[in-house]
Amino acid sequence: MKPQKQRFKHDPENGIYGDCHRTAIATVLGIDRDDVPHFGDGDPPAEEFFRREAEFLKRFNLRTVVVPFGDKLQNVLDFAQHANGDTPYLLGGTSKTGVHHTVVGRGNAIAHDPSTTDAGIVAPCKDGYYWLSFFVVDDLAAHVARHHQRGAA
Fold this sequence. Notes:
Blueprint lengths: L19 H10 L16 H13 L3 E8 L3 H12 L4 E6 L5 E7 L2 E4 L17 E8 L2 H13 L1
């Protein structure tokens, strides 16, 4: 992980859309925040936002598996640890500032908050759910073939 802070604080009244999500992805992937596109720039519809994210992650042969949870935050984090061990993941919810926010989880805790104000996650999103995003290999067969070829060389 490469912990870092977001560049843009959410201020839609002035045409600025927060980039916590891309910063959380950069943190998990260990790359610079500015090497990840700002998927939310211009406030696209959700389908476009996630299409942009998927297109970017495909470069790394990754995709996300997204799971909604309508439970207490600690139960959500405990599930994430059970399902994902110590591998970092994304957690979406509502921050102290009242906006949707993405942080990095690891095990059963929030490991890094990309917010410049450490706004954290204090409640589910407005739809009533916390959202867990786990990174998985997009094309498992191709990944295994590449790994096998390296081992044979």
